[in-house]
Amino acid sequence: MRQLFSTKVRIILVLAALITAALMIMNSVGMVTLPGVVTQTLMAPVRAVGTALTSTAELYYSYMFQYEALAAENAELKAQIAEMEDVARQADSVNRENGRLRNAMNLPAMHESYDLVDAYIIGWNSTEWNSTLTINRGTNVGIQANMCAVTENGQVVGLVTEAGPNYAVIKTVLDSTLEISGTISTSGYNGMVSGGYIDGHETLLKMEYLPSSAIIRNQDQVVTSGSTVYPRGLIIGSVVDAGFEETGVAKFALLRPAAEINTLEQIFIITNYATDAGAVAETTPTETTADNG
Q: What is the pTM of this model?
C-alpha cells in the first residue's frame, strides 16, 4: 500500500511539473496565461455557437439576396413574355384582318360591283328567337338601315336594322324575324330562308315554300336570289336535311349558316352595289323581315 501511494504521488508530481514547465514556456514566448487558457476553454463552445450563428446569418442573407435577385429577374422575364405574347396576339389579329381584307377585295370580282365598309363587332344579343350584333361604325361612314352585312367571303351575316353616327345594329340570319329570298344553286329552286328556334336544330336556318317535287340534296348550297336589299349570289348556307311541311304540299330544307355567326370578329357592310342592269340599288325594307313577307 505504501509502495502504491508513493507511485501515485510521484505521478502527480511529474504531471504538475510538466504542466508548470509548459506554462512557463508559454509565458516565455508570449502565449496566454493559465487563467487565459481556462477562459479560452470556457469560451470555446460560446465562440463555436457564435461562429455557427454568423455563418447561418451569412447564408440566409446570401439566400435572400439571391432570392430577391431571382424574383426580380423572374418578374422581368414574365413581363417580357407577356409583351411578346401581346405582340404575337396583335400580329395574329393583323394577319387575320389582312386576310379578311384581301378576300373582301375579291367580292366585287366574284359578284356585282360592291362598295364595302369594314367594321368590328363590339356587342352581341342572342335569345331563342332573336339574334343581333353591334358594330363600331355607322352613319359617319355611310352605313344605313336595310344594308346587307357579309363576311369577307361573301357569306350573309344579316341586315342593318339601326344605325347611329358610330355604331350600327345587325339582325343576323339566326333571327326568327329575318327572311331572305334564297335559291338552291344546283337546282334553281327558290324559297324563303329564316332563322329562329327550331327544336333540336337551334343553330340552323329553315328554307320554306319549296315545291313538293323538288329534289334536295345534302350539301346543296343556297344563295341569295337577289333583291333591292340583298345582292344576288351571296352565300346563305348549305343543306343538311329536308322534309315535307305538315300540309304535305311543300317541302322545307334545313341549312347550316355559311357564316359562323358566333365566332365573327369583323364584317363588311355593302353600302351600295350595281344590279344586273348596271343601276345602283337603293336599300328598302322589302322582303327583309317576316313581318313584311
A: 0.61
- Each residue of 225-245: b (16+ CB within 10 Å) or e? bbbebbbbebbbbbbeebeee
Question: Do 288 and 229 touch, CB atoms closer than 8 A?
Answer: yes
Q: Which residues pair with 183 in a beta bridge?
A: 190, 223
Reported as a single tens digit per residue, the pLDDT across 146-164 is: 999 999 888 999 999 999 9
Nearest to 131 by CA among 196, 81, 208, 84: 196
Is the Cα dihedral 215, 252, 287, 104 positive or negative? negative
What DSSP line would sit under 115-151, residue for residue?
A: EEEEEEEEEEEE-SS-EEEEES--GGGT--TT-EEE-
C-beta separation of 169 from 134 below 8 A: yes
Residues whose CB falls within 8 Å of the CB of residue 147, separated by 6 or more in sequence, listed in order: 159, 160, 229, 269, 270, 271, 283
Is the distance from CB of 237 to CB of 205 less than 8 angstroms?
A: yes
Q: Round to whole Å and give the CA distance between 200 and 56.
A: 71
Q: Which three cell numbers stand for residue 41?
A: 476553454
3-state secondary structure 61-118: HHHHHHHHHHHHHHHHHHHHHHHHHHHHHHHHHHHHHHHHHHHHHCHHHHCCCEEEEE
Give domain 107-273's CATH number out of 1.10.3720.10, 3.30.390.10, 2.40.10.340, 3.30.300.130. Answer: 2.40.10.340
The region of weakest confidence among 102-111, 128-137, 238-247, 283-292 is: 283-292
Cα 287 to Cα 293: distance, rounded to the nearest angstrom = 5
Q: Name the residue among 141, 143, 147, 153 with its Cα closest to residue 100.
A: 153
Which residue has cell 355611310? 142
Length of the chain, please? 293
